[in-house]
Amino acid sequence: MGQGDPRRGWAGRHPRLVSLSVLLASVLLTLLVVEAILDRFDSRTSTRRFKTTDQKRVAYFRELGLPFDARSKYNFVSDLRAEGREIYPYVYPSNFLQRPLTIGGKPFFPLAGISQVETAYCNENGEYLVYRSDERGYNNPPGLWASDRLEVVFAGDSYTHGDCVRPGEAFADVVRARFPLTLNLGSGGNGPLMELAGIREHLRDKRFSHLVWVYCGNDLGNLDREFRQPILVRYLDDSSFFQDLAGHQPELDRLLGEFVDSELEGYGALLDIRDFFVRRFPNLTGLVGRIGRSTGGAVDPGLIEQRLTRFERVMREARRFVDQKGARLLFVFIPTLFVDYENKTLVDVTENRERILEIVDVLGIEAVELAAPLLSLGGPDAIYHHGFPGHFDAAGYAVIAEQVLARIEPPPPAAPEGLPTAPASPRG
Fold first, then answer.
1. What is the fold, at CATH topology level, of the domain defined by 43-267+300-408?
2. Distance of alpha carbon 27 from alpha carbon 319, whole angstroms
3. pLDDT of 104-163, one tens digit each?
4. Is residue 379 within 8 Å of residue 332, measured between CB atoms?
5. What ranges do the domains of the chain cover?
6. pTM of the full predicted structure?
Protein backbone atom coordinates (compact mmCIF):
# COMPACT_ATOMS: atom_id res chain seq x y z
CA MET A 1 0.00 0.00 0.00
CA GLY A 2 1.31 3.48 -0.91
CA GLN A 3 1.64 6.44 1.43
CA GLY A 4 -1.70 7.80 0.29
CA ASP A 5 -3.56 4.53 0.67
CA PRO A 6 -6.72 5.29 2.71
CA ARG A 7 -6.47 1.89 4.39
CA ARG A 8 -3.40 3.06 6.29
CA GLY A 9 -4.04 4.81 9.59
CA TRP A 10 -3.39 8.52 10.19
CA ALA A 11 -0.17 7.74 12.01
CA GLY A 12 1.08 5.68 9.13
CA ARG A 13 0.33 8.46 6.67
CA HIS A 14 2.00 11.19 8.81
CA PRO A 15 5.05 9.64 10.50
CA ARG A 16 6.84 12.99 10.93
CA LEU A 17 3.85 14.54 12.70
CA VAL A 18 3.67 11.50 14.96
CA SER A 19 7.36 11.84 15.83
CA LEU A 20 6.93 15.57 16.51
CA SER A 21 3.85 14.90 18.65
CA VAL A 22 5.72 12.30 20.69
CA LEU A 23 8.62 14.73 21.16
CA LEU A 24 6.35 17.57 22.27
CA ALA A 25 4.43 15.28 24.60
CA SER A 26 7.69 14.10 26.13
CA VAL A 27 8.88 17.67 26.61
CA LEU A 28 5.57 18.72 28.15
CA LEU A 29 5.55 15.71 30.46
CA THR A 30 9.12 16.42 31.52
CA LEU A 31 8.30 20.06 32.22
CA LEU A 32 5.22 19.05 34.18
CA VAL A 33 7.21 16.61 36.30
CA VAL A 34 10.00 19.13 36.92
CA GLU A 35 7.52 21.92 37.73
CA ALA A 36 5.64 19.60 40.07
CA ILE A 37 8.86 18.81 41.92
CA LEU A 38 9.83 22.49 41.99
CA ASP A 39 6.38 23.35 43.32
CA ARG A 40 6.92 20.73 45.98
CA PHE A 41 10.25 22.36 46.85
CA ASP A 42 8.58 25.76 46.79
CA SER A 43 5.80 24.65 49.15
CA ARG A 44 8.17 22.90 51.52
CA THR A 45 8.85 25.51 54.08
CA SER A 46 12.61 25.06 54.14
CA THR A 47 12.92 26.31 50.56
CA ARG A 48 9.90 28.58 50.46
CA ARG A 49 10.07 31.01 47.53
CA PHE A 50 13.30 29.58 46.15
CA LYS A 51 11.63 29.27 42.76
CA THR A 52 10.73 32.85 41.93
CA THR A 53 10.29 36.25 43.42
CA ASP A 54 6.71 37.51 43.23
CA GLN A 55 6.81 38.85 39.68
CA LYS A 56 3.68 40.95 40.17
CA ARG A 57 5.36 42.65 43.10
CA VAL A 58 8.52 43.24 41.06
CA ALA A 59 6.52 44.75 38.18
CA TYR A 60 4.53 46.92 40.61
CA PHE A 61 7.69 48.34 42.20
CA ARG A 62 9.32 48.98 38.85
CA GLU A 63 6.22 50.78 37.57
CA LEU A 64 6.68 53.12 40.53
CA GLY A 65 10.35 53.55 39.67
CA LEU A 66 11.44 51.76 42.84
CA PRO A 67 14.41 49.38 43.01
CA PHE A 68 13.70 45.71 43.69
CA ASP A 69 16.07 42.78 44.03
CA ALA A 70 14.24 40.35 41.74
CA ARG A 71 16.55 37.41 42.43
CA SER A 72 14.94 34.30 43.83
CA LYS A 73 16.03 33.39 47.33
CA TYR A 74 17.94 30.49 45.77
CA ASN A 75 19.90 32.85 43.51
CA PHE A 76 20.35 35.43 46.28
CA VAL A 77 21.87 32.88 48.65
CA SER A 78 23.93 31.26 45.89
CA ASP A 79 25.36 34.62 44.80
CA LEU A 80 26.39 35.56 48.33
CA ARG A 81 27.95 32.16 48.90
CA ALA A 82 29.92 32.62 45.70
CA GLU A 83 31.33 35.80 47.28
CA GLY A 84 32.56 33.75 50.22
CA ARG A 85 29.81 34.60 52.71
CA GLU A 86 28.49 31.86 54.97
CA ILE A 87 24.76 32.45 54.59
CA TYR A 88 21.76 30.17 54.86
CA PRO A 89 18.11 30.58 53.98
CA TYR A 90 15.91 30.39 57.05
CA VAL A 91 14.98 26.78 57.77
CA TYR A 92 11.27 26.75 58.56
CA PRO A 93 10.57 24.27 61.38
CA SER A 94 7.23 23.30 59.85
CA ASN A 95 9.19 21.56 57.11
CA PHE A 96 9.81 18.74 59.60
CA LEU A 97 6.22 18.08 60.60
CA GLN A 98 6.15 14.82 58.66
CA ARG A 99 9.75 13.76 59.18
CA PRO A 100 11.61 15.11 62.22
CA LEU A 101 15.37 15.12 62.53
CA THR A 102 17.14 12.20 64.18
CA ILE A 103 19.92 12.53 66.74
CA GLY A 104 21.33 9.39 68.30
CA GLY A 105 18.42 7.36 67.00
CA LYS A 106 15.88 9.67 68.68
CA PRO A 107 13.51 12.00 66.79
CA PHE A 108 13.81 15.74 67.39
CA PHE A 109 11.52 18.47 66.14
CA PRO A 110 13.39 21.78 65.65
CA LEU A 111 11.57 24.97 66.61
CA ALA A 112 13.84 27.53 64.93
CA GLY A 113 16.52 27.84 62.26
CA ILE A 114 20.28 27.40 62.33
CA SER A 115 21.89 29.27 65.20
CA GLN A 116 24.44 32.08 64.94
CA VAL A 117 24.59 32.29 61.14
CA GLU A 118 23.80 34.96 58.61
CA THR A 119 20.21 34.19 57.62
CA ALA A 120 18.33 35.20 54.46
CA TYR A 121 14.63 35.41 55.15
CA CYS A 122 12.27 37.25 52.80
CA ASN A 123 11.86 40.15 50.39
CA GLU A 124 8.72 42.26 50.13
CA ASN A 125 10.19 45.77 50.31
CA GLY A 126 12.75 45.42 47.50
CA GLU A 127 15.65 44.02 49.49
CA TYR A 128 16.14 40.75 51.32
CA LEU A 129 15.87 40.70 55.07
CA VAL A 130 19.20 39.33 56.29
CA TYR A 131 20.00 38.97 59.98
CA ARG A 132 22.31 36.96 62.19
CA SER A 133 20.36 34.39 64.15
CA ASP A 134 20.76 34.10 67.90
CA GLU A 135 22.16 31.24 69.98
CA ARG A 136 19.02 29.14 69.42
CA GLY A 137 18.23 30.08 65.82
CA TYR A 138 15.71 32.89 66.42
CA ASN A 139 15.69 36.50 65.23
CA ASN A 140 17.13 38.14 68.34
CA PRO A 141 20.28 40.04 69.23
CA PRO A 142 22.97 37.90 70.89
CA GLY A 143 23.13 37.49 74.65
CA LEU A 144 19.42 37.50 75.57
CA TRP A 145 19.42 33.81 76.47
CA ALA A 146 21.97 34.47 79.23
CA SER A 147 19.32 36.32 81.24
CA ASP A 148 17.17 34.28 83.62
CA ARG A 149 14.62 37.09 83.86
CA LEU A 150 12.96 38.47 80.72
CA GLU A 151 10.59 41.38 80.42
CA VAL A 152 8.55 40.55 77.29
CA VAL A 153 8.34 37.38 75.22
CA PHE A 154 6.66 37.22 71.80
CA ALA A 155 5.20 34.04 70.32
CA GLY A 156 3.85 33.99 66.78
CA ASP A 157 4.43 33.25 63.11
CA SER A 158 5.92 35.21 60.22
CA TYR A 159 4.56 38.59 61.39
CA THR A 160 6.25 38.10 64.73
CA HIS A 161 9.40 36.80 63.05
CA GLY A 162 9.71 40.12 61.21
CA ASP A 163 8.46 39.54 57.64
CA CYS A 164 9.65 41.51 55.70
CA VAL A 165 11.07 44.71 57.18
CA ARG A 166 14.56 45.89 57.96
CA PRO A 167 16.17 44.92 61.26
CA GLY A 168 14.84 47.18 64.00
CA GLU A 169 11.45 47.74 62.33
CA ALA A 170 9.63 44.57 63.43
CA PHE A 171 7.22 45.13 66.30
CA ALA A 172 9.29 42.93 68.62
CA ASP A 173 12.29 45.15 67.85
CA VAL A 174 10.29 48.31 68.58
CA VAL A 175 9.15 46.91 71.93
CA ARG A 176 12.74 45.84 72.68
CA ALA A 177 13.86 49.44 72.27
CA ARG A 178 11.67 50.20 75.31
CA PHE A 179 12.17 46.87 77.11
CA PRO A 180 15.68 45.56 76.32
CA LEU A 181 15.01 42.08 77.69
CA THR A 182 12.44 41.28 74.98
CA LEU A 183 12.73 37.80 73.46
CA ASN A 184 11.21 36.95 70.08
CA LEU A 185 10.16 33.30 69.61
CA GLY A 186 8.32 34.03 66.36
CA SER A 187 8.99 31.79 63.38
CA GLY A 188 7.51 31.85 59.90
CA GLY A 189 5.11 28.97 59.33
CA ASN A 190 4.27 28.55 63.01
CA GLY A 191 0.80 27.63 64.15
CA PRO A 192 -0.61 27.64 67.71
CA LEU A 193 0.78 24.24 68.72
CA MET A 194 4.29 25.08 67.51
CA GLU A 195 4.08 28.38 69.37
CA LEU A 196 3.08 26.54 72.55
CA ALA A 197 5.99 24.15 72.02
CA GLY A 198 8.35 27.10 71.71
CA ILE A 199 7.37 28.72 74.98
CA ARG A 200 7.25 25.40 76.83
CA GLU A 201 10.65 24.34 75.47
CA HIS A 202 12.57 27.57 75.87
CA LEU A 203 10.94 29.29 78.86
CA ARG A 204 10.83 26.39 81.30
CA ASP A 205 13.80 27.81 83.24
CA LYS A 206 13.05 31.49 82.59
CA ARG A 207 11.06 34.10 84.42
CA PHE A 208 9.22 36.73 82.41
CA SER A 209 6.67 39.46 82.98
CA HIS A 210 4.61 39.40 79.78
CA LEU A 211 3.96 36.80 77.10
CA VAL A 212 2.50 38.35 73.95
CA TRP A 213 0.76 35.72 71.82
CA VAL A 214 0.27 37.01 68.26
CA TYR A 215 -2.57 35.36 66.33
CA CYS A 216 -3.01 35.54 62.54
CA GLY A 217 -5.84 34.39 60.31
CA ASN A 218 -4.17 31.22 58.99
CA ASP A 219 -3.31 29.88 62.45
CA LEU A 220 -6.37 27.67 62.76
CA GLY A 221 -5.58 25.83 59.54
CA ASN A 222 -2.02 25.16 60.73
CA LEU A 223 -3.40 23.08 63.58
CA ASP A 224 -4.39 20.28 61.19
CA ARG A 225 -0.82 19.29 60.34
CA GLU A 226 0.60 20.24 63.73
CA PHE A 227 -1.66 17.77 65.53
CA ARG A 228 -0.35 15.00 63.27
CA GLN A 229 3.15 15.45 64.72
CA PRO A 230 3.44 13.34 67.93
CA ILE A 231 6.34 15.36 69.36
CA LEU A 232 4.31 18.58 69.24
CA VAL A 233 1.25 16.93 70.77
CA ARG A 234 3.35 15.82 73.74
CA TYR A 235 3.88 19.48 74.66
CA LEU A 236 0.11 19.69 75.04
CA ASP A 237 -0.51 16.36 76.78
CA ASP A 238 2.51 16.21 79.11
CA SER A 239 3.26 19.33 81.13
CA SER A 240 6.75 18.03 81.99
CA PHE A 241 7.81 17.23 78.40
CA PHE A 242 10.65 19.02 76.66
CA GLN A 243 13.22 17.97 74.06
CA ASP A 244 16.24 19.84 75.43
CA LEU A 245 16.84 21.44 72.05
CA ALA A 246 19.34 23.90 73.53
CA GLY A 247 21.41 20.99 74.79
CA HIS A 248 21.50 19.54 71.27
CA GLN A 249 22.08 22.81 69.40
CA PRO A 250 25.35 21.77 67.70
CA GLU A 251 23.80 18.57 66.34
CA LEU A 252 20.67 20.44 65.25
CA ASP A 253 22.75 23.08 63.46
CA ARG A 254 24.75 20.42 61.64
CA LEU A 255 21.65 18.52 60.49
CA LEU A 256 19.80 21.68 59.46
CA GLY A 257 22.84 22.92 57.57
CA GLU A 258 23.22 19.62 55.72
CA PHE A 259 19.52 19.66 54.94
CA VAL A 260 19.67 23.14 53.43
CA ASP A 261 22.82 22.40 51.41
CA SER A 262 21.22 19.26 50.00
CA GLU A 263 18.04 21.05 49.03
CA LEU A 264 19.93 23.93 47.47
CA GLU A 265 21.92 21.48 45.36
CA GLY A 266 18.84 19.51 44.32
CA TYR A 267 16.86 22.63 43.57
CA GLY A 268 19.63 24.01 41.40
CA ALA A 269 19.79 20.78 39.38
CA LEU A 270 16.04 20.88 38.78
CA LEU A 271 16.23 24.51 37.67
CA ASP A 272 18.95 23.57 35.19
CA ILE A 273 16.71 20.87 33.70
CA ARG A 274 13.73 23.19 33.47
CA ASP A 275 15.79 26.00 31.94
CA PHE A 276 17.20 23.61 29.33
CA PHE A 277 13.70 22.88 28.06
CA VAL A 278 12.41 26.41 28.50
CA ARG A 279 15.14 27.80 26.27
CA ARG A 280 14.18 25.36 23.53
CA PHE A 281 10.41 25.40 23.97
CA PRO A 282 9.55 28.81 25.49
CA ASN A 283 5.90 28.76 24.40
CA LEU A 284 5.17 25.73 26.55
CA THR A 285 6.04 27.37 29.86
CA GLY A 286 2.80 29.32 30.12
CA LEU A 287 0.80 26.20 29.42
CA VAL A 288 2.70 24.22 32.03
CA GLY A 289 2.11 26.95 34.59
CA ARG A 290 -1.64 26.74 34.06
CA ILE A 291 -2.04 22.97 34.22
CA GLY A 292 -3.13 21.40 37.46
CA ARG A 293 -3.91 24.61 39.34
CA SER A 294 -6.88 24.48 41.68
CA THR A 295 -8.59 27.16 43.72
CA GLY A 296 -9.75 25.06 46.65
CA GLY A 297 -13.15 25.29 48.25
CA ALA A 298 -15.07 25.97 51.43
CA VAL A 299 -13.84 24.36 54.65
CA ASP A 300 -16.11 21.73 56.18
CA PRO A 301 -17.89 23.15 59.28
CA GLY A 302 -16.98 20.03 61.24
CA LEU A 303 -13.31 20.65 60.53
CA ILE A 304 -13.65 24.24 61.72
CA GLU A 305 -15.15 23.02 65.00
CA GLN A 306 -12.30 20.56 65.42
CA ARG A 307 -9.77 23.33 64.87
CA LEU A 308 -11.50 25.60 67.37
CA THR A 309 -11.54 22.81 69.96
CA ARG A 310 -7.84 22.23 69.45
CA PHE A 311 -7.15 25.95 69.61
CA GLU A 312 -8.96 26.15 72.94
CA ARG A 313 -6.81 23.30 74.29
CA VAL A 314 -3.62 25.05 73.20
CA MET A 315 -4.61 28.40 74.69
CA ARG A 316 -5.73 26.77 77.93
CA GLU A 317 -2.29 25.18 78.31
CA ALA A 318 -0.61 28.46 77.42
CA ARG A 319 -2.65 30.21 80.12
CA ARG A 320 -1.75 27.53 82.66
CA PHE A 321 1.96 27.83 81.84
CA VAL A 322 1.97 31.63 82.05
CA ASP A 323 0.01 31.62 85.31
CA GLN A 324 2.50 29.15 86.76
CA LYS A 325 5.26 31.64 85.94
CA GLY A 326 3.37 34.46 87.63
CA ALA A 327 3.33 36.35 84.34
CA ARG A 328 0.68 37.99 82.20
CA LEU A 329 -0.65 36.65 78.87
CA LEU A 330 -1.68 39.11 76.17
CA PHE A 331 -3.45 37.89 73.01
CA VAL A 332 -2.87 40.09 69.94
CA PHE A 333 -5.28 39.50 67.04
CA ILE A 334 -3.98 40.46 63.58
CA PRO A 335 -6.91 40.69 61.13
CA THR A 336 -7.02 39.33 57.60
CA LEU A 337 -7.26 42.33 55.28
CA PHE A 338 -8.32 42.35 51.62
CA VAL A 339 -7.17 45.09 49.27
CA ASP A 340 -9.94 46.66 47.21
CA TYR A 341 -7.84 48.01 44.35
CA GLU A 342 -10.72 49.79 42.65
CA ASN A 343 -11.44 51.95 45.68
CA LYS A 344 -7.93 51.77 47.15
CA THR A 345 -9.29 50.66 50.50
CA LEU A 346 -8.76 47.82 52.95
CA VAL A 347 -11.56 45.42 53.85
CA ASP A 348 -11.52 43.26 56.96
CA VAL A 349 -12.33 39.67 55.89
CA THR A 350 -11.23 37.88 59.05
CA GLU A 351 -12.92 34.52 59.58
CA ASN A 352 -13.94 33.01 62.93
CA ARG A 353 -13.11 36.24 64.78
CA GLU A 354 -16.02 36.00 67.22
CA ARG A 355 -15.34 32.35 68.06
CA ILE A 356 -11.63 32.93 68.58
CA LEU A 357 -12.18 35.94 70.81
CA GLU A 358 -14.88 34.10 72.75
CA ILE A 359 -12.44 31.30 73.55
CA VAL A 360 -9.81 33.79 74.65
CA ASP A 361 -12.33 35.70 76.77
CA VAL A 362 -13.63 32.56 78.52
CA LEU A 363 -10.04 31.68 79.42
CA GLY A 364 -9.61 35.12 80.98
CA ILE A 365 -6.94 36.25 78.53
CA GLU A 366 -6.75 39.93 77.63
CA ALA A 367 -7.19 40.44 73.87
CA VAL A 368 -5.94 43.25 71.67
CA GLU A 369 -7.85 43.63 68.40
CA LEU A 370 -5.86 45.38 65.71
CA ALA A 371 -8.46 45.82 62.97
CA ALA A 372 -9.62 49.27 64.03
CA PRO A 373 -6.18 50.86 64.62
CA LEU A 374 -4.81 49.40 61.37
CA LEU A 375 -7.80 50.42 59.26
CA SER A 376 -7.78 53.90 60.79
CA LEU A 377 -4.45 54.59 59.07
CA GLY A 378 -6.12 54.61 55.65
CA GLY A 379 -5.70 52.46 52.55
CA PRO A 380 -3.11 49.85 51.56
CA ASP A 381 -0.39 52.49 51.16
CA ALA A 382 -0.56 53.08 54.90
CA ILE A 383 0.43 49.60 56.11
CA TYR A 384 1.91 47.68 53.14
CA HIS A 385 5.17 48.21 51.30
CA HIS A 386 4.19 50.96 48.81
CA GLY A 387 0.62 49.64 48.89
CA PHE A 388 1.32 46.11 47.64
CA PRO A 389 -0.31 43.53 49.97
CA GLY A 390 1.74 41.06 51.93
CA HIS A 391 3.13 41.49 55.40
CA PHE A 392 2.97 44.90 56.99
CA ASP A 393 5.60 47.58 56.48
CA ALA A 394 7.30 49.47 59.30
CA ALA A 395 4.25 51.70 59.82
CA GLY A 396 1.94 48.71 60.17
CA TYR A 397 4.28 47.04 62.62
CA ALA A 398 4.58 50.28 64.58
CA VAL A 399 0.81 50.13 65.19
CA ILE A 400 1.17 46.64 66.69
CA ALA A 401 4.07 47.77 68.86
CA GLU A 402 2.11 50.80 70.09
CA GLN A 403 -0.89 48.66 71.01
CA VAL A 404 1.29 46.19 72.91
CA LEU A 405 3.23 48.89 74.71
CA ALA A 406 0.01 50.59 75.74
CA ARG A 407 -0.94 47.41 77.63
CA ILE A 408 2.37 46.52 79.23
CA GLU A 409 3.90 49.85 80.14
CA PRO A 410 3.17 50.96 83.70
CA PRO A 411 0.97 54.06 83.94
CA PRO A 412 2.67 57.31 84.91
CA PRO A 413 2.85 57.84 88.67
CA ALA A 414 -0.06 59.75 90.12
CA ALA A 415 0.65 63.22 91.49
CA PRO A 416 0.62 63.44 95.30
CA GLU A 417 -2.74 64.44 96.67
CA GLY A 418 -3.20 68.18 96.72
CA LEU A 419 -0.56 68.87 94.09
CA PRO A 420 -1.44 69.86 90.53
CA THR A 421 -0.63 67.43 87.73
CA ALA A 422 2.01 68.38 85.19
CA PRO A 423 0.58 70.41 82.30
CA ALA A 424 0.27 68.73 78.95
CA SER A 425 3.11 69.34 76.55
CA PRO A 426 2.22 71.94 73.92
CA ARG A 427 1.60 70.58 70.42
CA GLY A 428 2.53 72.07 67.12
1. Rossmann fold (3.40.50)
2. 56
3. 999 999 999 999 999 999 999 999 999 999 999 999 999 999 999 999 999 999 999 999
4. no
5. 43-267+300-408
6. 0.81
